[in-house]
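A brief tutorial aside. Many learners find it easier to grasp structure tokens once they have seen a single protein encoded end to end. The record that follows does exactly this for DedA family protein. Read the sequence first, then the structure, and try to relate runs of similar tokens to stretches of the chain.
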Amino acid sequence: MKELFYSIFEVLSQLGYIGIALGLMIEVIPSEIVLSYGGYLVSTGTIHFWGALAAGVIGGTIAQLFLYWIGLYGGRPFLDKYGKFLLIKKSHLDASEQWFQKYGTGVIFTARFVPVIRHAISIPAGISRMPLSTFSIYTLAAMIPWTVLFLLLGIQLGDHWREIKEYAKPVLLPIIFLAFTSVVIYFLYKQKK
């Protein structure tokens, strides 16, 4: 699997903006790595920041739309049977469904910043037939800060962009805390209403 990962990454890394978008669309390579490499390319002057941002937001949004449509048209039976081929674990799907049922549509934005949940949350949105326009707005709104964050980290790291996981941890922990707190506040608001 590691060889496949590096082979795909090698091809994508030569495609610039298209490589960033495709890397996020196929989701074989974690978005943090794709975007930090995009930041590295920006730091070398190979590509421009705004183009990398557009490619990241478009690619990430399309990936989530694909998962939404799988949930909408395939449902849970399809995912239980074929999810492993899409790198979707049953435990991730279970957790995302629980979050979606508990916190409602607002979780689509905040869950994008929570590991494990962030990729699979689109599926229960599709299964529950959340309006596509609402889903798209929340997803797009979450993809912008996520993309900016990892592009900026990649720019700062420069040649050390491969070490993104270590450098991102101190930055991601407050973001995860903020996302979780936002979900709780949203849930309390919904309960009171």
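Self-check: The chain has a mean pLDDT of 77. If you spotted this yourself, you are ready for the next section.
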